[in-house]
Amino acid sequence: MNELGLSVPFWILVLIWMARTVWLVFICTILAWLGIRALDALTPHIPHRQRIGESPVATGLFIAGFFILAGLVIHGAITAPTVVGGPIVSYFFDFRRLGLLALSFLVSLLIGIALFYLVDKLTPKIPFGSIEREPVAVGIHVFGYLIFFGLILHAALTTPL
Fold it and tell me: Are 74 and 21 in contact (CB under 8 A)?
């Protein structure tokens, strides 16, 4: 069984499709972790984990943001375009798709960061750094950030080549 196609039983195709979905979710998990590390690097004056842990509401917002991120990533992985009929190895390790995923994520992250700093500069009377004082504000900030990651990963996964 070197190639996928009509000669392969349907249940094997489903198992391979499920394994590919898990593989894409794993790759996106690594990208999301890198994105969270980027958030830590961009806002070193805000101890996100400590402040979120101080409030049950902030913790709930973090968990909700995580589930939305996970749902968007899983949906994107399941609905990602694919070609059935080629070698199994290229089905999992489609370097064009993986490269597009990484590049789309990186470009979207950089655009998001640039827009964040632009809005911060254009609204000087709204001190973005003041969220550090309130755990719920930090939770809402991270909640939005997780949804942002989910959306850009979903878009990268479902982009047709």
Answer: yes
Q: Which of 61, 77, 75, 70 is nearest to 20 (CA)?
A: 77
Contact 86, 2 (CB under 8 A): no
Query: Would you say how long the chain is, in residues?
Result: 161
Give the integer Cα–Cα distance in Å for 96 and 72: 21
Quick check: 106 and 35 in contact, CB under 8 A? Answer: no
Contact (CB, 8 A) for 45 and 132 = yes
**Tokens, residue 75:** 């949906």
Q: How many C-beta atoms surround the C-beta of residue 85 within 10 A?
A: 10
| Token reading at 40 | 């830590």
User: Which residues on adjacent β-strands are paired with residue 87?
Assistant: 3
Highest mean pLDDT among 8-12, 51-55, 81-85, 156-160: 51-55
Identify residue 95 by its one-letter amino acid code: F
Q: Is the pTM of this model over 0.70?
A: yes
Q: List own/partner pairs for 83-87 with CB under 8 A and 24 or more apart.
A: 84/4, 84/5, 84/13, 85/3, 85/4, 85/5, 86/3, 86/4, 87/2, 87/3, 87/4
In tens, the pLDDT along 30-71 reads 888 888 888 888 888 888 888 899 999 999 999 999 999 999
